[in-house]
Amino acid sequence: xxxxxxxxxxxxxxxxxxxxxxxxxxxxxxxxxxxxxxxxxxxxxxxxxxxxxxxxxxxxxxxxxxxxxxxxxxxxxxxxxxxxxxxxxxxxxxxxxxxxxxxxxxxxxxxxxxxxxx
Length: 118
What we know:
By secondary structure, the chain is mainly alpha-helical.
């Protein structure tokens, strides 16, 4: 077989690994938003996993597109996401805190398990 075939296979495999890992992180963040107890922990789950997940998907798309103008546009998109996603998450959490939303300060899982054990 031709060596270009193996380069194409490696490129497709690396692209798939990055995109599937990014999609898995975004899914984990979505589950965290559904399962966590208060606003601040939900914002943390969404902010961290969505930023990294989006970056990994974009890296996978850059690998898939090769060395083209599309990859430059994707790199700029990745830079914008990298800068704006944590900033917007911080701004929303700060606005919630300033408006008076207090974080949950109790042990939310251990209280339930103690009541079930008695």
